[in-house]
Specification:
Blueprint (H helix, E strand, L loop, with lengths): L3 H8 L5 H6 L32 E8 L3 E2 L9 H16 L8 E5 L10 H8 L8 E4 L5 H14 L5 E8 L10 H12 L3 H8 L23 H11 L4 H20 L9 E2 L5 E2 L10 H5 L21 E11 H6 L6 E10 L9 H13 L8 E4 L4 H11 L2 H7 L20 H4 L6 H16 L3 E8 L3 E9 L3
Parallel strand pairs: 3-4, 3-5, 10-11
Antiparallel strand pairs: 1-8, 1-9, 2-8, 5-8, 6-7, 9-12, 11-12
Helix pairs in contact: 3-4, 8-13, 12-13
Length: 475
């Protein structure tokens, strides 16, 4: 695809093609900040398919999601993953020996525990005969862990899967420079003093410069924040609109937390510290305070700030996924069915964060549903601008025809059904763990609100995305 931003600077100074197209319909959330849930759309059909196993979520948990550098900062990723697994075992009372396979997602791997699923499973007391593996797909790593489990059950290879994800941003690997790494490896192989001295003579002080990790695209060398800022500009989304949406997320999360709706959170006794019982990134403020923050990425004119972006988060999640017949035979009452899902991929430069726009119509068509059939939407909130840009793209016939090859728009989710208990902007976003949180939020909301279908969607680095239909289990 021809770069939209390239077109912008060559042909439309100070504004973009998308901005001109979408600025006539600015999207504001302020009037619907705490909108009450609308009456649910009841559907009589189910998405069960003939000759295919029904796959259910029995339950899912997560340890509290915390700002990086706080209570989890002295731990390792497998410590968090183990805590989530233990919380799941306690919540479901599933016998460890019944679990056929453990799959976890993660993004920034600790080199000592590269297969964190295996280390966490062993630490949580699972049999050493229970296989475990780790997957990575940026912000949809836990989604990939879940759907890998779904595939194993659907294929008849397994009946009981534990899927989850973990991220510890408090302690990420920092490497020596490549020149320093090369010298150290050669020194390790040197057999004589002369060889060692020869290698040491080539040392230069700039070899000591470390390679710091960055949340950036390898293919474009651009941070996700820069992409979010450009996307917001392309869709003519102001900082005010982004701040309004961020405030909505924090306000709804605080309300859900206070009312005990975040029932997937399990307490975690941090070794040597107090027991952590709730997410600590939920911080409702005011639009006046949010407006004072400076641009975080594109300076000085950007609109993406620290307040309307998701924050670096430590956390872990885990879910018990089973074949329905196995769950019922063991006496469980599942929470939801996991139904159709899709993965999508598009241009990582201009459309890095538009995964939900591309995935939503595909998964709806696959399931034979429309937007009106969906009772609970749970989208990953990487940035407020990203969510609002997806809303505008989904609600545009022009975008559907010109960029998606579709005849018409799918339509944007109604805010009264959207992320009603907060989202990644407020609850936090441990890269590898968020997918399970989204699915459990959808399942729990359907139970609480009496809906039937939920739609989970997320964007991810590399221009990828995921969407899944969750169907409430009959009461």
């Amino acid at each position: 695809m021809t770069s939209i931003l390239t077109y912008t600077f060559k042909n439309l100074p100070n504004t973009s093609k998308w901005a001109l197209r979408f600025s006539v319909r600015p999207l504001s959330c302020s009037s619907q900040l705490l909108a009450a849930p609308a009456a649910q759309t009841k559907s009589k059909k189910t998405l069960a398919k003939p000759n295919m196993r029904n796959i259910v979520v029995v339950d899912g948990v997560r340890i509290p999601f915390l700002l990086s550098g706080t209570s989890y900062k002295d731990l390792m990723p497998h410590d968090l993953a183990r805590a989530a697994l233990l919380g799941l075992l306690h919540r479901t009372n599933i016998p460890k020996e019944v679990v056929d396979y453990v799959i976890f997602g993660t993004v920034i791997q600790e080199v000592k525990t590269s297969n964190v699923a295996r280390e966490a499973a062993l630490g949580a007391g699972f049999s050493d005969k229970t296989p475990a593996h780790t997957v990575t797909m940026a912000c949809i790593s836990a989604n990939q862990a879940m759907t890998t489990g779904v595939g194993l059950i659907a294929a008849g290879q397994s009946d009981v899967i534990v899927a989850g994800g973990v991220e510890l941003m408090s302690d990420v690997p920092i490497r020596h420079s490549r020149k320093m790494r090369k010298m150290m490896l050669e020194l390790n192989k040197a057999k004589t003093l002369g060889q060692r001295l020869s290698l040491i003579s080539k040392f230069r002080f700039n070899f000591l410069a470390p390679e710091l990790p960055a949340v950036a695209e390898f293919s474009t060398s651009e941070t996700m924040g820069h992409s979010a800022d450009r996307l917001a500009a392309a869709f003519a989304i102001s900082q005010r609109e982004q701040d309004e949406y961020a405030l909505r997320s924090h306000s709804l999360a605080k309300k859900a937390q206070d009312e005990g709706l975040l029932s997937d959170v399990v307490p975690f006794k941090v070794p040597g510290k107090d027991t952590v019982t709730k997410d600590n990134g939920i911080r409702p403020s005011s639009l006046e305070q949010l407006a004072k923050l400076k641009p975080a990425f594109v300076k000085p004119y950007g609109t993406v700030t620290a307040a309307n972006s998701s924050f670096l988060t430590d956390g872990a999640s885990a879910m018990l996924i089973m074949a329905e017949e196995k769950a019922l035979a063991m006496g469980y009452k599942p929470k939801a069915y996991l139904r159709d899902f899709v993965y999508v991929s598009q241009d990582p430069k201009d459309q890095l964060l538009l995964g939900p726009t591309y995935a939503t119509p595909k998964v709806l068509e696959k399931a034979g549903l429309t937007m009106n059939d969906i009772d609970a939407f749970e989208f990953h909130e990487a940035f407020a601008g990203q969510i609002l840009a997806n809303f505008k793209a989904m609600d545009s016939d022009w975008f559907a025809k010109n960029y998606m090859g579709r005849k018409s728009k799918v339509g944007s989710p109604p805010l009264e059904k959207f992320n009603n208990w907060g989202g990644s902007l407020s609850l936090g976003h441990p890269f590898g763990a968020t997918g399970c949180r989204l699915v459990m939020a959808a399942a729990n909301r359907l139970q609480k609100e009496g809906g039937q279908f939920g739609l989970v969607a997320a964007c991810a680095a590399g221009g990828q995305g995921h969407a899944m239909i969750v169907e409430a289990y009959p009461k």
